[in-house]
Amino acid sequence: MDWDDLRIFLAVARADSLSGAGRRLGIDASTVGRRVARLEQGLGAKLFLKTPQGYALAPEGERLLPHAEAMELASAGAEEALTGPGDLIGQLRIGAPDGCANYLLPQVCARMAESHPGLEIQIVALPRVFNLSRREADMAVAVSQPQAGRLVVQRLTDYRLHLAGHEDYLRAHPPIRGLADLRGHRMIGYIADMIFDRELDYLAETGADWAQLTSNSVSVQMQAIRAGAGLGIVHDFAIPFCPGVRRILTDRLSLTRSFWLIRHQDDRRSQRMNRLADVLAQGIRAEVARLQAQLSP
């Protein structure tokens, strides 16, 4: 069985489409389709079912999937064994919630790229949980520890969040001396039915019943606060990027959350992936500490 054909099979299984697989592999969709058809003909089995949503694995494809993944891991291991540890090269796709992706990963990945010129880093910012079994990312940063799946989970660091507003808004509205005073202010937060992780449900901590301006993106929320639209709970590490935004009621309301690094269990056997995980973890810890240290007590 040709490993190159199985590589294409894996790309289609993970992308759910010929075009998506083609983009990942750098070839056109028609070539992907021909290679899949050739593999199916050679095996005498239908590997995919075409659905309105794209290409879904047929039962035969489901049975082939773990064997193809094992060959992928063996191929990567063979390459590592021949080339030795050396420099970190190749592609690394990191999935992260948009707060981490916008305010932490650009600096962390810039330093990684500087230290490892042969590394191609992709940052995928999505307000949802990543599916590593479908290889949507090589590793992902999450805001809570997953409880199921064939995953390696590593605690990265704690980070702090506080209530904040722009100084222009705070000057133009009644003073805020306690949580009860928030009732007369506009609140900014997450769209309630789009909160993908319970750790992001901050609004109840303020005692507010609802938020007047909401978004599924923490970065959009921060820009709304910066524009003077109201008050919201924000990451301390994001405040240095937003001149004029300052924390309030820090002695009354302070939240602590954690970042977790999540990888596919099979990647533990890859020296390269272990090294990349270590570099990324160290970088995120250092960047959170650096940014939070810039805030006055």
From TrEMBL:
Keyword Electron transport annotated: no
Keyword DNA-binding: yes
Family: Belongs to the LysR transcriptional regulatory family.
Protein name, per record: DNA-binding transcriptional regulator, LysR family
CDD domains reported in the protein's UniProt record: PBP2_LTTR_substrate
Pfam families: HTH_1 (PF00126), LysR_substrate (PF03466)
Record keywords, A-Z: DNA-binding, Transcription, Transcription regulation
Domain HTH lysR-type, first and last residues per copy: 1-58
One MF term in the entry's GO annotations: DNA-binding transcription factor activity
